[in-house]
Amino acid sequence: MTRIFSHTRPIEADIVDAFCLLQKGFTDQFVYYDKQRACRYMGLGRCIALPTLDDAESELEGPTAQPPVFFSFNRFDAENPAPPDELFEAFPRLKFMLPEIVLIENERGTLLQVNSLGPVYPGRIERFARQALAAPARRRETIPYRIEPDSRAAWRQVLDAGLHAIAEGRVEKVVPSRRLKLVAEHPFSSKDLLVNLIDGSARGTVLLYRYADVFFCGCTPELLVRKRGSNLESMCLAGTCPAGSSEEDRMRLAAELMADSKNRSEHDYVVRFIREVFNRTCHDVDVPSEPGILPLTHVQHLCTPARARLLEGVDLWSMMEDLHPTPAVAGTPVGEAKMLLRRIEPYNRGFFAGACGYVDGDGDGEFSVALRTGVFDGEIGWLYAGCGVVAGSDADAEYDEIDMKLMTILSAFSGEDGADTAASRSTRSAAADEGSRSEARYASAIDCISGTAETLAGSTNNQRVEKGTIR
Ligand SMILES: C=C(O[C@H]1C=CC=C(C(=O)O)[C@@H]1O)C(=O)O
């Protein structure tokens, strides 16, 4: 049995500023930061990594009874025998990683958690709290870069192989991706991209996993699974159109997307899959028959929220494994589509489209699908994005759709919203940044998706010490 001591206390700091200050001393860094709701966890250092939470026991110390927060970043296809890109190779294969420090914003408040394998020395907690409080306001920096364009001809070959497999009846849908190399004018830090994603116009959940000098980050709109007690949520996300350059334009494009049979069929594969998984592992399953629209800064998606109550004995990890990958990132049937991707994609995706998130000591937590992401080191980065292909898909249209999706991770290089450096201009396509207008739209879409999330009661009382086995 591993014994973990978690001391948690409230702090009156801005957790992003505090993270930016404290991160200098830590090579391991973890972020799961929902821009829309107070579900924000920023971890530094590694206290311990565990293969399972079954053999861990936590002792909760300090004024706030917050169970320890473990991060978990998982590869898209962990069994793929092809070697991953060399930057991904740097990351160890660890399941549950508990940071030494976690800065938290959730329903319990703004918190500082210090984790240790022995009782936490109070002086250490106070030192981190003092530093967090004194953190200066962060600043955004624009990082000039160029993209080494990938070839449309190579993409057409990938797409032809996918369409051929569809024509032969081996798969009904497949979701191939493109990978692009980015070269910046000078080396940049994980902090710079993180701050631009958090403070910029990208919508969704910001992810970061840094190990030594290499880091993986991005901002994904796709929730894979969220668990609070027995309440479970997921999201069927597939089918894309541009964001549009005005509200009128956006609504017109959204209406066209809703009426488009190809996009609707791409979407329906995901709905059927998630409904089937939920019907097997849950009760009170609620998956509407009609999708809505999830408007983002650069694109819009067809989106169907999925809710259910978990059967007793089923945990978040097993739900994550049952749900991932969905047909939104692999295809249908999922196993056949994964095999096809191993064959037709000229690289191993690593964490791109993997399940990344956190689990706390009560067994609650969430995983998102790591879309709109890249892996970075020094002045180099590899960016990834994919698209759903069904019978009748057109290679050039899908290539352009991926360009639009790439704009989200490229926004991590802009110190100002709408900043358009000469270097980045050539890679940008039609969709424009929409700032606050799209913020409001996103808020309402996510509200409808996550309406049942606020189930954890905030409990804070003075110097409470709790023991518990981690589920
Ligand atoms: C695979 C990606 O997006 C998925 C999620 C939303 C819409 C998608 C689509 O319309 O193709 C994809 O299924 C990606 O962003 O790399």
From TrEMBL:
Q: Which reaction does it catalyse?
A: chorismate = isochorismate
Q: Which InterPro entries match?
A: ADC_synthase, Anth_synth_I-like, Chorismate_C, IsoChor_synthase
Q: Name one GO molecular function term.
A: isochorismate synthase activity
The annotated regions of Low complexity compositional bias extend over: 420-433
The UniProt record lists the EC number as 5.4.4.2
Q: Where is this region: Disordered?
A: 417-436
Keyword annotations of the record: Isomerase
Q: Does the keyword Isomerase apply?
A: yes
UniProt domain Chorismate-utilising enzyme C-terminal: residue ranges: 152-405
Classification via Gene3D superfamilies:
Anthranilate synthase (3.60.120.10)
- Similarity remark: Belongs to the isochorismate synthase family.
Protein name listed in UniProt: isochorismate synthase
Species of origin reads Enteroscipio rubneri
Q: What is the lineage of its organism?
A: Bacteria, Bacillati, Actinomycetota, Coriobacteriia, Eggerthellales
